[in-house]
């Protein structure tokens, strides 16, 4: 910092009631530079926050967070912890990073597939280390309501509803309402959902949608989250009817069919044989979902299937998932799984010429084409379960009623 020049004007004092005969003389003195410094704000790391989007890769997330760090990318791609974290990214969840102005990563927090789990990474010299401690999160129940003026997402944004909740709203009512053609001006929605916050009060992400209602063209649709006696959570209408299919058609989110249910020439055995499942091509490490509620009947290695999981469902139905690169660490024989749970990851173990998922759908141990079979519908709650459902969900339904004063609760 340069020296400062200080100028003082000196004047001769004059006694009261005397004529003023003043003279002034400027006195200049050069002062040394102040003995302090302030670090430029541009030199300090900054915290950047975003949300994981569907189809995100490590590179797209880093780009949005302003990270330009080859060491960080190498660690995430080569370490067991980093690869596992990337396989379990969860769309809609918050991701945060501390980054220097030149793009070096100081710390990173990624959301994971299950519940409130997060993956935390910190720089340690020229390398990185994972941090095991998980933040203690508290669930806060929030309520929002809105009216459609032009589009669903325009209305949810105006109501202050997070994008992740708006997307979930569209998914929940997607079997009842075609949001491309059925929406009308004046349609209304109400939703009760969880916001997850840390002990310091900072929002960490969005939890579950607890209840939601959509009034479309005068017709009211309501769903409530219910945990059954086996601990499984699902969404039901007020009369106990499930709004979803009993089975998903696809066990992968982003995929293509590479081999159908048919007679084919086996690329390894070099002979024609019946292909009793469907092959879905997908990048190695892609998450594989359970297509329906069930229990784990088998998990391990089985001949040409390689790493395989077999799930047993109601009505003597089983599904098989083969050639996996690995399993969900929490999966065990006899464990209960819910539709959409991640059970493993795409690989090419066993008799596989490239990364893909081999998927089979069996009824009474007879293979059926999962792409053409009429999938079973979800069963409504039984009479005894319906009574439990009504009692357990009363609080959620009352919250929805608070957003619609004209509605009464039975």
Which key terms come to mind for this protein?
ten-stranded antiparallel β-sheet, five-stranded antiparallel β-sheet, 410 residues, 15% helix, mainly beta
Hey, roughly how much beta strand do the residues contain?
Answer: 35-45%
User: Structural class of the secondary structure composition?
Assistant: mainly beta
Global Rg: 31 Å
- Spatial gap, N to C terminus: 76 Å
Helix coverage percent of residues?
A: 10-25%
What's the number of helices?
Answer: 7
Give the overall shape.
Answer: globular
Main β sheet profile: 10 strands, antiparallel
Mean pLDDT: 78
Low-confidence stretches: 1-41
Beta strand count: 24
Short description:
Helix content is 15%, strand content 38%. The chain has 410 residues and is mainly β.
Give an overview of the whole structure:
It is a single chain. By secondary structure, the protein is mainly β. The chain is built from 7 helices and 24 strands. The chain has helices spanning 58-65, 70-78, 80-87, 152-158, 163-172, 383-392, 394-402, and strands at 4-11, 24-31, 46-51, 94-99, 105-111, 118-124, 127-131, 138-147, 188-197, 203-216, 219-227, 233-236, 256-259, 262-265, 272-275, 278-281, 287-289, 294-301, 307-312, 317-327, 336-337, 342-346, 356-363, 366-368. The protein starts with a strand and ends in an 8-residue tail after the last helix.
């Amino acid at each position: 910092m340069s020296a400062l020049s200080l100028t003082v004007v000196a004047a001769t004092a004059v006694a009261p009631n005397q004529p003023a005969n003043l003279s002034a003389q400027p006195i200049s003195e050069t002062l040394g530079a102040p003995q302090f410094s302030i670090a430029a704000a541009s030199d300090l790391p900054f915290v950047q926050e975003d949300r994981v989007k569907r189809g995100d890769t490590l590179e797209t997330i880093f780009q949005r967070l302003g990270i330009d760090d080859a060491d960080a990318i190498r660690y995430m791609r080569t370490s067991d912890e980093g690869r596992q974290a990337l396989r379990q990214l969860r769309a809609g969840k918050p991701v945060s990073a501390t980054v220097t102005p030149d793009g070096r990563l100081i710390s990173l927090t990624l959301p994971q597939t299950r519940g409130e789990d997060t993956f935390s990474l910190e720089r340690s010299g020229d390398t990185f280390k994972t941090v095991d401690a998980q933040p203690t999160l508290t669930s806060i129940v929030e309520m929002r309501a809105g009216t459609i003026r032009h589009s669903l997402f325009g209305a949810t944004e105006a109501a202050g509803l997070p994008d992740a909740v708006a997307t979930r709203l569209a998914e929940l009512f997607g079997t009842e309402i075609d949001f491309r053609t059925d929406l009308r001006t004046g349609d209304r929605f109400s939703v009760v959902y969880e916001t997850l916050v840390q002990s310091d009060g900072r929002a960490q992400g969005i939890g579950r949608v607890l209840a939601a209602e959509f009034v479309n063209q005068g017709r009211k649709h309501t769903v409530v989250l219910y945990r059954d006696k086996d601990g499984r959570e699902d969404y039901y209408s007020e009369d106990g009817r499930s709004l979803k299919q009993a089975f998903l058609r696809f066990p992968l989110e982003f995929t293509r069919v590479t081999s159908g249910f048919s007679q084919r020439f086996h690329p390894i055995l070099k002979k024609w044989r019946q292909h009793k499942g469907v092959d879905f091509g997908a990048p190695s490490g892609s998450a594989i979902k359970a297509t329906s509620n069930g229990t784990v009947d088998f998990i391990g290695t089985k001949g040409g299937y390689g790493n395989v999981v077999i799930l047993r469902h109601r009505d003597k139905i089983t599904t098989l998932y083969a050639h996996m690169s690995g399993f969900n660490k929490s999966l065990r024989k006899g464990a209960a799984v819910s539709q959409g749970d991640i059970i493993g990851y795409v690989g090419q173990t066993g008799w596989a010429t490239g990364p893909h998922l081999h998927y089979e759908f069996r009824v009474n141990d007879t293979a059926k084409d999962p792409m053409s079979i009429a999938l079973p519908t979800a069963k409504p709650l039984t009479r005894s379960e319906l009574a439990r459902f009504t009692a357990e969900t009363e609080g959620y339904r009352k919250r929805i009623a608070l957003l619609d004063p004209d509605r009464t609760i039975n």
